[in-house]
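Database export, one record per block. Field names are fixed; values are copied verbatim from the stored entry.
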Amino acid sequence: MSFTALRLIDWIWTVRGSLPIAPGLSVDEAAARLDPLFHDPGTTRQRDGDVVTFHKVNPLSQDKLAVFDRGRLQIAAGLTGGTLRYELVGRALLFCFLLPVFFLGVSAIVDGSKISGRVFAGIFTVLYVAGRWLEPRLVAGLFTRALAGGAVPSRNDRPGVAGNGAG
């Protein structure tokens, strides 16, 4: 599949967006404010100049970015304030998109399971539509709070919770 064709369908599992960064906030300060988001167990992160990339392996459900397996954030400085551009990829969104087709296929093949197959297809359709509507808003809010200096503790920073040392 060519890059152009893939780009036409990757909206199914990719969340893209951009947010303004307050004037006077440097690239380093913005990256430092976003950094606690990537301290959860199973998350690796790398910063190269104005770009932060992360990968997640078996994220905990309490991880605020658990839906996304990997992502790229670019912090661009400007005279009147900068911009955070992000691209986050989540296999969970892809699975919720594909599972209705699977359950409808199974219900068509196996006698007696038509209703249950349709029910499961409906559940995953609702999950996908809700996720595609909700996730971009949740991520934008999370990044906005972090950039504003709001407390966004990682799992390791919470009292009484021990991490596994990854990250």
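Remark 1: The first strand starts at residue 14 and ends at 21.
Remark 2: The longest helix spans residues 114-147.
End of record.
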